[in-house]
Amino acid sequence: MSPSPRDLAEMAAAIEGTEVAARQWLQAGFSPGDAAAYVRAGCFDVDRTEELRRANITPSQIAALGLGWDFCAGKVAVEDLRVNGGGQAKTPMLW
């Protein structure tokens, strides 16, 4: 099902982006509020941001790390952002 013009306009305003970008965020199941929070945290790639969501990494967590842009650019792996099995992941600045 295609998003309504109202949904597209609301998402585009939330992410301060184009209708094409808004459609991508909506099709991935993001609400305007969640998408906007990830975008403010530096996330620009919807598919990579979905990885964060699947890994239960919230917008505030990725924002605190300051790695949203680097993650979406492929410079940081999701494994480097998580705590694995009680021990710290490769990046020392994790929660």
Descriptive overview:
With 95 residues, the protein is an all-alpha fold. The protein is 53% helix and 0% strand. The chain has helices at 5-15, 19-27, 32-40, 46-54, 59-65, 68-72. 24% of the residues are buried. Mean pLDDT is 87; it is low at 83-95.
Summarize the structure.
By secondary structure, the protein is mainly alpha-helical.
Number of strands: 0
Q: Can you give the helix content as a percent range?
A: 40-55%
End-to-end C-alpha gap = 38 Å
Shape: elongated
Which spans of ≥5 residues are poorly predicted at pLDDT below 50?
A: 83-95
| Biggest pleated-sheet summary | none
Oligomer designation: single chain
What count of helical segments does DSSP give? Answer: 6
Question: What's the Cα radius of gyration?
Answer: 14 Å
Strand content: under 5%
Order of helices and strands: HHHHHH
